[in-house]
Amino acid sequence: MENSYHGDTIGTMSVGERGVFNQPYNPLLFDVAKVPFPSAGNEQATIDQLEKLCAQGDVAAFIVEPLVLGAGGMLMYSAETLRALYETCKKHNTLFIADEVMTGWGRTGKLFACEHAQITPDIACYSKGLTGGSLPLAITMCSSAIYDEHYSTDRSKTFFHSSSYTANPIACAAAVANLEIWENEPVYERIENLIEMQAAGLARFKDDDRFTNIRQTGTIAAMDINVKDHGYLSDIGPRLYEFFKSKNLLLRPLGNTLYSMPPYCVTQDDINQIYDAIAEAADELL
């Protein structure tokens, strides 16, 4: 999908958006087909393009960030569209890969974003929230059909490529502790409270013409500052970052896109501090 981000390896850069950030690696990247982002009112064009590509019979897989494209600008689309994309892949026997590195672990209001569309991906990528953000750890899961295709007692067919810290025991211990919190504490109640706090924080800007495209999916809230130079390299980005640091806030604007994605232990006072600072930033910087 256009505007997507899946990582910084040769493979993940190949399936992500091309631009200034990965331009030096272009000679190494392999070609992929892309579908447009399903912006409001244009969802069918995305579905139709995926249908056209998959119908050719040579598409191995479709990889997507479900519901929210993160680094691409916190772009959001509906669960209905996500389900339609999934069903298109199933129709043509194309593998559906869900990159839930950011959207997983409650960020969208459910444990995984795919649950909103009531779909189960063939391959799922999880990270970040797996340890509650405390340590780096990632996991890739696949369907039993894919597992069975690769299962072999021939050791020469082992997946040998991993990293030095794969299954690091300290990171895994952190994940186990985090999963125990999910099982034993009212995490969903905290998430629901955070969703409501985020909605109330955004509401104060709905009639402020200095902000556009005010949006929310679950606990993720975002808005765009109305400036002439849009996008990741907008001049307003570094100025906003420095301003928020002066307010003792770690907010990381994506150019002129501001987003708030706080931890689930956040308080109402914390939320107030975030949105007060956003209002101050508009007063001082615009």
Keywords:
single chain, alpha/beta, Aspartate Aminotransferase, domain 2, Aspartate Aminotransferase, domain 1, 8 helices
Describe this entry's structure for a reader.
The longest helix has 18 residues, at 268-285. With 286 residues, this protein is an alpha/beta fold. The strands form three sheets. The chain has a four-stranded mixed beta sheet. Strands 7-8-9 form a three-stranded antiparallel beta sheet, with helices on one face. It folds into two domains: 10-184, Type I PLP-dependent aspartate aminotransferase-like (Major domain) (Aspartate Aminotransferase, domain 2); 187-285, Aspartate Aminotransferase, domain 1. Helix 2 packs parallel to helix 3 (79-91), helix 6 (187-203) runs parallel beside helix 8 (268-285) and helix 7 (236-246) crosses helix 8 (268-285). Helix content is 35%, strand content 13%. It contains eight helices and nine strands.
Give the structure's gist in a few sentences.
With 286 residues, the chain is an alpha/beta fold. The chain has helices at 10-14, 43-55, 79-91, 144-150, 169-184, 187-203, 236-246, 268-285, and strands at residues 61-64, 68-69, 75-76, 95-99, 123-126, 139-142, 211-217, 220-225, 257-260. The two termini are 33 Å apart.
